[in-house]
Inverse folding.
């Protein structure tokens, strides 16, 4: 009961902040709502007893990536946003396709979730959560998911080198 | 019911009040110590030797007029001081002040939440605290605060990388992320971690100075260049919140350094039997004494060292501290596997 109350309250806040992110006229406000949204998601993780994921969510997304967003927004666009608005109909075709795809996805998930018995655990999930999910995450990353993990780290390295190359001043 | 709600709530209430009192008295201590260094007396008027000065200051700040600049972004302007104060306070939740103590026949652990990601939690709260500074700079809609805000956040992000890397080597040494676990690991290791990881301690301390925007890294508040820093446009209690947040962050850094490197609540040389008489002093007093020494060093450094130039500061962060932290991490990993 308590869990349900916590979950639905958080869900309302998460979605509400999500809506505010795209409706806010001021870009900095929009970024701030994004932070609030990330923090709500982090609390959801805590409610799921995934403390490690929650803290990483705050550390990486709220504390790292969005700070960089904020930097960019503040440096690029310090003045109020021009009021020029694109005619909404111009984007309507693409928007329709995207909305239809999202609807299909959500209904597929609902149908799939409805077809399973409600209490069955997800396939492959351990019967009881291991104590201390930090160890579990680390163990899985370095055993079962070693290849994706290494591929991701190489990808990050490539992105980093690319960023340095782009940012470096041209040799005269 | 009592166990799950009442006890934690009481702990939080006591801790928050203690921290806020400590923060206000830190201000007095700083003024006094710097005055002594400069052969002055410091505050002497309010109460004997000025001990009631913090109360007078608090009253003054609360009664002062609170001005919001006309062109400021009101929403963010109000939010910024709150955002800088809250992370400093919630970081205390995972700091253990003592082992389990028995109070009125009831076993009580002197930590609000001994979560198994305690260290990461501290890092996450400090990474959030940068928002207060950036937002204050932005919302003031004024050039100097904006420049100071950008400086401060660049500084914070740079030094956070080094400090986080360094914390990883502590985790490698201790084998746990829990703050209580790290103190207990020092008991098992028969040594404070400062003797095992001296380089890491130096990096944490320099990074801590930089992250709390303290001298010699107090560039965001360089009066000569930026009039007052990111809080130039703030007045009254909102200004006070920034001020208090800085001191609260100092206490957090000191408490974290004590926990990670100086054995938290453990007495010096925790496993040497002839020193057992030191156990007569309760653990939390040891903890507070060690934390106080750090706070004193913070003030001492401010009174002693001149300010860094901005490019020197960035060079120190990226070209010295981060490579050193990575090297330290690699070496501790190799040693951990070999030994």
């Amino acid at each position: 009961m308590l869990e349900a109350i916590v979950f639905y309250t958080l869900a309302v806040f998460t979605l509400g902040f999500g809506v505010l992110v795209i409706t806010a006229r001021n870009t900095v406000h929009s970024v701030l709502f994004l932070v609030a949204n990330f923090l709500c998601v982090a609390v959801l993780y805590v409610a799921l007893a995934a403390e490690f994921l929650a803290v990483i969510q705050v550390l990486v997304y709220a504390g790292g990536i969005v700070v960089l967003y904020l930097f960019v927004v503040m440096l690029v666009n310090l003045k109020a946003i021009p009021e020029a608005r694109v005619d909404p109909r111009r984007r309507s075709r693409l928007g329709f396709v995207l909305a239809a795809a999202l609807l299909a996805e959500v209904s597929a998930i609902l149908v799939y979730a409805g077809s399973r018995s409600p209490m069955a655990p997800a396939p492959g999930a351990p019967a009881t959560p291991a104590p201390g999910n930090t160890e579990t995450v680390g163990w899985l990353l370095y055993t079962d998911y070693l290849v994706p993990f290494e591929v991701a780290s190489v990808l990050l390295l490539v992105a980093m080198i690319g960023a340095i190359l782009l940012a470096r001043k041209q040799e005269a | 019911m009592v166990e799950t709600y009442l006890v934690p709530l009481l702990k939080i209430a006591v801790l928050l009040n203690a921290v806020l009192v400590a923060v206000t008295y830190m201000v007095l201590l700083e003024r006094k110590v710097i005055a002594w260094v400069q052969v002055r007396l410091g505050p002497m008027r309010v109460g004997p030797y000025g001990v009631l000065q913090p109360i007078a200051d608090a009253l003054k700040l609360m009664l002062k007029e609170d001005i919001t600049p006309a062109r400021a972004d009101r929403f963010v302007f109000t939010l910024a001081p709150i955002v800088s104060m809250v992370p400093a306070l919630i970081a205390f939740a995972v700091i253990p002040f003592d082992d389990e103590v028995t109070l009125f026949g009831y076993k009580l652990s002197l930590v609000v939440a001994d979560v198994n990601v305690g260290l990461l939690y501290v890092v996450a709260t400090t990474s959030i605290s940068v928002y207060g500074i950036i937002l204050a700079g932005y919302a003031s809609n004024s050039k100097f605060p904006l420049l100071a805000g950008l400086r401060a956040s660049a500084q914070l992000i740079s030094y956070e990388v080094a400090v986080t890397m360094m914390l990883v080597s502590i985790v490698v040494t201790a084998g746990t992320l829990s703050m209580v676990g790290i103190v207990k690991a020092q008991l098992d290791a028969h040594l404070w971690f400062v003797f095992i990881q001296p380089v890491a301690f130096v990096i944490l301390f320099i990074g801590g100075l930089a992250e709390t925007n303290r001298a010699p890294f107090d560039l965001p508040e360089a009066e000569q260049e930026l009039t007052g820093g990111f809080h130039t446009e703030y007045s009254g209690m909102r200004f006070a919140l920034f001020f208090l947040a800085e001191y609260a962050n100092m206490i957090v850094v000191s408490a974290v350094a004590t926990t990670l490197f100086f054995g938290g609540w453990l007495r010096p040389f925790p496993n040497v039997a002839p020193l057992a008489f030191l156990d007569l002093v309760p653990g939390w007093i040891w903890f507070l004494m060690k934390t106080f020494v750090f706070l004193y060093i913070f003030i001492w450094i401010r009174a002693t060292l001149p300010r860094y130039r901005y490019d020197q500061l960035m060079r120190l962060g990226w070209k010295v501290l981060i490579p050193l932290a990575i090297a330290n991490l690699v070496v501790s990993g190799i040693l951990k596997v070999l030994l």
